[in-house]
Amino acid sequence: MRKTIQTAGLALLLASALATAQTPYTEDSTYRGLGGQEGIGKIVDTFITLVLADPRIKESFADFDMKQLNLRLREQFCEFSGGPCKYTGKYRDKTMDGVGTVRDMKSVHIDLKITNAQFNALAEDLQIAMERHHVPTSVSNKLIAKLAPMQRDIVTK
Ligand code: HEM
């Protein structure tokens, strides 16, 4: 029951956030609520573990370098929560032989043909990771709301 309410709440949040501009916060209360860089590091570690164990989405990540993805997500969550980081978008996958590229969210995800259901599954895993690290709901909802507008670029199927 709790799960149903949570999922419904999340869907609502994602929908309402689609209308919001995709810009980082100008103050850092969300960043601090996440526990700063240390807290974000722990959240991203747990998040990636959950994603890689999630039968709904784990296959999508099979060919990619999770260490690099981990670093990029730390950067992105830090910047989007108002922290002192800048997302560079530099990412090397295993086939790129050490050459970094800078790609926007659309070009990163386009070949993966991601569905709404996959997007929601990933957002749910992030929500669970934040819960596990005792992030208050008011804070976790703010990060999710910041990331939600990316759905437009990421979901292409
Ligand atoms: C709010 C939703 C999402 C966010 C914020 C997000 C964020 C990111 C970021 C920051 C990267 C690293 C890109 C780079 O450094 O160039 C990335 C890569 C990736 N994402 Fe997402 N993502 C989201 C949703 C998804 C979903 C739903 C899937 C699949 C189910 C997915 C699969 C991947 C994969 C496989 C990569 C590696 C792609 C590559 O390097 O070519 N993402 N994502």
Automatic annotation (TrEMBL):
Q: Does the keyword Signal apply?
A: yes
Q: Which UniProt keywords apply?
A: Heme, Iron, Metal-binding, Signal, Transport
Q: Which Gene3D superfamilies match?
A: Globins
Q: Which GO terms describe its molecular function?
A: heme binding; metal ion binding; oxygen binding
Annotated signal peptide: 1-21
**Pfam families recorded:** Bac_globin
Source taxon at top rank: Bacteria
Organism of origin: Pseudoduganella namucuonensis
Per the record, the coiled-coil ranges are none
Q: What is this protein called?
A: Hemoglobin
For this protein, the record's InterPro entries field holds:
Globin-like_sf (IPR009050), Globin/Proto (IPR012292), Hemoglobin_trunc (IPR001486)
